[in-house]
Write the structure tokens for this entry.
Amino acid sequence: MLSTFLSHQRKSFWRSRNRGSSIAGQIVLGFFMLYFFTLALGAGLGMSHLLAYFFPDQDVIKSFNGIILYYFAFDFIMRMQFQELPTLSIIPYLHLKIQKSKIIKFLNVKALFSAFNLWPFFIFLPFCFIKIAPSLGAVTTIMYIVSIFSIMIFNNYMVLYIKRKSITNTLYTFLGLVVIAAFAALEYYKVISIMAGSDVVFRAIAAQPLFGFAFTIAAIAIFYFNSNFLRKNLYVEELSTKQEKKGSTDYAFLNRFGKVGELAALELKLILRHKRPRSSVILGFFFLFYGFIFYKEKAIDRDAFGQMMFGAIFMTGVSIIIYGQFMFAWQSAHFDGILANKINFKDYIKAKFLLFTIGCTIITLLASFYGFLSPKLLLLHLAAYLYNIGFGTVVVLYLATLNYKRLDITKAASFNYQGTGATQWLLMFPYALTPILIYVPFGMLNKPYWGLVAVSVFGLAMLLLRGFWVNYIAKRLELQRYKIAEGFRE
Amino acid sequence: MILEVKNLQKVYGDKTVVNIEDLQIGAGETVGLVGNNGAGKTTFFRMLLDLIRPTNGEVLSKGENVMHNDNWKNYTASFLDEGFLIDYLTPEEYFIFIGSLNNLSVADVSAYLSQYGEFFNGEILNSGKYIRDFSKGNQNKVGIAAALMQKPEILILDEPFANLDPTTQIRLKKLLKEQTGNMTTFISSHDLNHVTDVCNRIILVEKGQVIKDFKTDENTLKELESYFSA
């Protein structure tokens, strides 16, 4: 029975409607996965060097012991956000002559098919064999492995259990990250040390290998709790998230824009009331930290804005890029309604521009904390901001008229590449290259500030031409409407 | 003629789904479109609403081709399927949104909705649910009420009776009959009883072509039944 379920799952994956049309997206996703797994494997193989590099004054095994619990705390929070409940897939089986216990078994097994359950293999296993086996012996190595996988399983089912019991929301994830960051800070200032705690735990396992089974017992316990809960509550409406009373909302600040504001409010509700667009927006906030990768002290000192331009454009324009790549497709479920109703294409496009401008402005304001690194960065951000709202929005909306792929917004965002096609990946090129190309001549002449001025002027000019762009894109949309509507209906 | 269809064809691959040479609908008529699954009813409606590009021919609304400009939207309201509903809104929000497109204030909308207490049977308004959480029948009700709210000259409904409970079916018939004469209504239905009851003209389609087109009288139902049982 279990194998039948799994074969149905496999079929539902391979036969899903958008499969054939988004092969390009799948291939790119495949590369991404490969890339991340290679990174993880690299980290795993080079673990002893990495640990020696980051914690130079202590024994590598001690450091290794120290990071395990940190890893799993982080893993837990990430799972809370991204791991999905395998619930909906069982609906067609509930009324059939299939024992409940079999369905539960299926749910439990299916829950193991998660990328989160692969990382530890890559990250921790190599070190266990390379360092722990030679110095602590075979039995200890086995118990290390048993403990690590027990914690992994524990996390896996614990998250599912929590998710089933209550509604989780992104706020908790954010709070969790803050808590971990706080512990890391306390660690840094040597107030409390989780690392030491983690080390004590694993040192105990090294000394007395049987202690490792404590984790296994915990994992089995949570597995049991989870199955028990499922057995008692195997009703679809109880397994999915609970219903709360939904109220009507009115966004007063958008009312002043008339019909355009009305349409923008509609889209704002779309974002806030669906998981996938909401996750996209939250992802945008995470990208606020992107600057720490790009804004190197050296680059700032040398006024090398060209190097930092990509980071700035991406960070301030992230809402436009991430949300805009599926423009129109977000509304695929009711696109017919939009066409058949008395909605002017120009108003429709203007509403998109309005929303982009608001989003981009908020992110840019938030990103101004980089001013503490150097006030120069604020100038860079201003240029990037003007470029994003002036021209970036146009690029995104133009490409959106070429996107005919339906998107199911009720599904989660992470690793969901439905609706992704070559267009989405091509998006980045004109978007990111244009400002860099504008800047480069000035950069080569060693006039970095003039380069920023040029990018800003370009953005501003496009912003002033917005009326023209609105007309242009509305015309494109009008031309493409049958094709888009047809694609969205499938 | 408020609606004219000329040489309208839609071809998918080598299959002609709709092929209507000439069809004239006068103002105030209530027209029922009847045909089995796959007869091309929905495709035809979509072309009336400019949602699908016809392979050939044209649809004229008050003499203007619907593909060329949006004027027809000023006096046409429609509900074909859930694709017309914005399902993440509460019904109230949806009605207010549709109202705002037709320059109705929030007060106008609530005044309008208050007449529909009976039709909604107390399940739609103030329910604290998004449209997507309603049953199909109740979603239909929202779509139909939103279309009627626009006080259109042309109303297009695709299988409005489907999924509705018997009480609501009767209420909907009453609503539609009240409008006879001042609104041109175009509905499709699989329910021969309802469609002969509501409509004063029946168009029978098969494989995309108009087979029969006649005014309803006391024999219509029998005629249709004998056609479909053959």
Q: What stands out?
A: The interface with chain A takes residues 46, 49-53, 70, 73-74, 78, 80-90, 92-93, 96-98, 100-102, 128-130, 133 of chain B (CB under 8 Å). Chain B has two domains: 1-75+155-160+180-230, 81-151. Residues 76 and 154 of chain B are 5 Å apart (CA to CA).
